[in-house]
Design a protein that fits this description.
It is built from two helices and no strands. By secondary structure, the chain is mainly α. It has one domain. Helix 1 runs antiparallel to helix 2. The radius of gyration is 15 Å and the shape is elongated.
């Protein structure tokens, strides 16, 4: 569950940058959004692997 909490914190942390990018068209916020989304993708992949490993051991 620790990984899930990390995932939620990452998404919550990006909320401000999403608003700045889409509402105020702040390009620097767009860069932070892209970086955060890449981190989200990597974390999601790690979780998928972990779940698959646990499932295969059962």
């Amino acid at each position: 569950m620790k990984r899930f909490e990390q995932l939620k914190e990452l998404v919550d942390g990006l909320e401000g940058d999403f608003a700045k990018f889409y509402d105020k068209e702040n390009s620097a916020a767009g860069t932070r959004v892209r970086k955060g989304m890449q981190e989200l993708k990597n974390l999601a992949q790690e979780i998928r692997i972990e779940v698959q490993d646990m499932k295969n051991k059962a």
